[in-house]
Automatic annotation (TrEMBL):
This is ATP-binding cassette domain-containing protein. The keyword Cytoplasm does not apply. Residues 20-252 form the ABC transporter domain. It comes from Actinoallomurus vinaceus. It comes from the Bacteria. Belongs to the ABC transporter superfamily. Drug exporter-1 (DrugE1) (TC 3.A.1.105) family. The keyword Ligase does not apply.
Length: 333
């Protein structure tokens, strides 16, 4: 946790303890769509915060308002102490954004992309050259920095996008689904980079994700949004602990039986929630020792064959399912 007040090196002005402070945010779209209905959360300086929620929950709308791209109907947002509605230009100077749409110019080299970005921020030549070198090393893109970005792999391109968002040394970094569409191996490499950035650059990071393992791995705290409201907030560990009970995961012999397995387990009073996960079903129960025999009996009675049964502690998937009322996998695009 951060100290009460920190001093940033260049300005000697005290940094507010909360890097992001969101209060009572509301936003309606035409057609009486209530996209945000009183959203509030605080992100302490130097921490990583995850915004989770099913499609349509209000994550993008929240991100747009926080990054000055949209105005709220009511409520307040302060970024590094600055009001996003009253001082959008100053806010833009202290934030960096990585959106799902890449800002990389495929015809320019990695180094040229970074340099151009720095010029757009009005950085001096010497300072920019230093910063480009620093970021090339930090994001480990030295081997490809002189090659045109059009030939980069998806992971390298994403790293360049992240580096570009950091060129002007922002205090708060917004990452919108930073690893969507990447291979699992590349995804964990990007996670390592993000975690390192948070430490080395003393960044506050706010990310949206629908990979719950990403939030579990990176976020100090998460907020689960549903229908424009925060339905749960806390550290991933605390949210999991609060759920109590166990998760019973039954892997099925036949993928086609997932629906039948789900219906069979839905009918058991000791199963609190059940969700399909690929060729498995995941049920949350109070006591796995009591539940497993009944789970297996119910499946057998309905003609569903189990390949394996695993008992686990509740995961962030179970937390999400509990608060959002549905699995994030059911809501994936
Ligand atoms: N420009 C718009 N006009 C009308 N309705 C909109 C507009 N943008 C978003 N909405 C609606 O507002 C609600 C919140 O959308 P938002 O995009 O913020 O959710 P989200 O959590 O980011 O979902 P996703 O992950 O699908 O982007 C949804 O019901 C959505 O359909």
């Amino acid at each position: 946790m951060p100290r009460a007040v920190a001093v940033s090196p260049g300005t000697k002005t005290p940094e507010p303890v909360a890097a992001v402070e969101v209060r009572d945010l509301t936003k309606r779209y035409p057609g009486d769509v209530r996209a945000l209905d009183g959203v509030g959360f605080t992100v302490p300086t130097g921490t990583v915060f995850g915004l989770l929620g099913p499609n349509g929950a209000g994550k993008s709308t929240t991100m747009k308002i926080l990054t000055t791209l949209a105005r709220p109907d009511s409520g307040t947002v302060r970024i590094a102490g600055l009001d996003v509605v009253a001082e959008p230009r100053r806010v833009r100077r202290v934030i960096g954004c990585v959106t799902q749409r890449s800002g990389v110019d495929p015809a320019a080299t990695g180094r040229e992309n970074l340099t151009l970005q720095g010029r757009l921020h009005g950085m001096s030549r010497a300072e920019l050259a230093r910063r480009v070198d620093e970021l090339v090393e930090l994001l480990d893109v030295g081997a490809v920095a002189e090659r045109v970005a059009g030939g980069y792999s998806g992971g390298t391109k994403r790293k360049l996008d992240i580096a570009m968002s950091l060129i002007h040394r922002p205090r708060v970094l917004f990452l919108d689904e930073p690893t969507t569409g990447l291979d699992p191996e590349i995804r964990s490499e990007i996670w390592e980079h993000i975690a390192r950035l948070a430490r080395q650059e003393r960044l506050t990071i706010l990310l949206t994700t629908h990979y719950l393992e990403e939030a579990d791995r990176l976020a100090d705290r998460v907020s689960i949004l549903d229908r424009g409201r925060v339905v749960a907030e806390g550290s991933p560990g605390r949210l999991k602990d609060d759920l109590n009970g166990d998760a019973v995961v039954v892997e099925l012999v036949e993928p086609g039986m997932v629906g039948a397995a789900r219906r069979a387990l839905d009918g058991l009073t000791l199963v609190r929630e059940v969700v399909a996960e690929g060729v498995a079903v995941r049920a949350r129960v109070d006591d796995a020792a009591v539940a497993v025999p009944q789970v297996l009996a119910a499946l057998t009675a309905d003609g569903v064959a189990a390949a394996s049964v695993t008992v686990a502690m509740p995961s962030l998937h179970d937390v999400y399912l509990h608060y959002a009322g549905r699995s994030i996998r059911e809501t994936e695009r």
